[in-house]
Amino acid sequence: MTRKRQTAVSCWKCFPFPGIRMIFGLKWPRSKSKGMLREGWHLIRSAHMKTVLQFLVGLLILSSVRADEAAEAILRAARVNPLGKPLVLDARLRAGEQKVPFQIAVNDGKISYVFSNPSQEILLGFGEDASTLEERRGGKAQPVSPARFDDSVRGGLLTYEDLALRFLYWKNPKLLGEEKVSGRTAFKIEIPAPPTASEYGVVRVWVDKAQGALLRIEGYDREGRLSKVFVVNSVQEIDGQGMLKQMRVERIDPATRKVALRTYLEILGKASP
Questions:
Q1: Helix 18-25 / helix 33-44 crossing angle, nearest 10 deg
Q2: What is the Cα–Cα distance from 53 to 186, expressed in whole angstroms?
């Protein structure tokens, strides 16, 4: 056995899934790389997030897997990451002195954002090929129309498009490399928007290499100018789950490249029964 082969075997033996060991132990021709990636994803759909990310890191060292295919796999993991065990959280949107309380509920594969005064519930679901965004008023849920995607949620900087996380499904993502974000190593991925389907022309995301969580998001307009930034300022642990504590959202003035408006999304803790 050559030195190169010994190194590869020592890497993939640590993975607990037979299918993953098979993938790491064989050299696949370029024409089969997409099928291999799909098989690997289905093998790990129910795995712990850390194992999922270990798998993706391994994919990056395979010469037969292209960077854009690795980027697609990383975004798949990021879509799964928010769906932990059922939980209801108290949260708020804060812009200066204005505070908008609401609750976030994770249940049945969906995330619900529940507001009062007036009553409103926004439901986010993650499908295989697209996210879904619905609004429930008066007990009846209906899809949020694309015409409303640019509308503000409760008067802040977050829009319905931002809540839908549609960019995680856009085609042709590119892995640009790795960077540090708040001391954490993250995959940097650039995702072009479909024509006329978004206020953004390009979105760049930084995905935590160890946990699969989104650490930073940058939205660029159709002229390539930075227009909005989302940054995770702090995290916390609730019921054994690591999650967001505070996220900063900034609207950037394209002319001056300075922050024009700022909103914070804060998770205050577990909701009372």
A1: 160
A2: 11
Preceding omega of 29 cis (within 30 degrees of 0): no
Domains of the chain listed by start with CATH number: 3-65 (no CATH), 87-270 (2.50.20.10)
Q: Rounded to a whole number, what is the distance in angstroms from the first to the last CA of the chain?
A: 60
- Structure tokens, 252: 């950037």
- Beta bridge mates, 231: 216, 248
What gap in Å lies between CA 183 and CA 175, rounded to an integer?
A: 20
pTM of the model: 0.74
Contact 125, 169 (CB under 8 A): no
Secondary structure of residue 206 in the 3-state scheme: strand
Question: Would you tell me how many other CB atoms lie within 10 Å of the CB of residue 172?
Answer: 11
Structure-token match 């798949």, residue found: 76
Q: What is the pLDDT of residues 151-187, one digit of tens each?
A: 999 988 899 999 999 999 999 999 999 999 988 999 9
Distance CA 151, CA 12 (A): 47
> What DSSP string describes 77-138?
HHHHTT--S-EEEEEEEEETTEEEEEEEEEETTEEEEEETTTTEEEEEEE-SS-EEEEEEET
Cβ pair 178, 186 in contact under 8 A: yes
Length of the chain: 273
CB atoms within 10 A of CB 219: 24
80 pLDDT band (50/70/90 cuts)?
confident
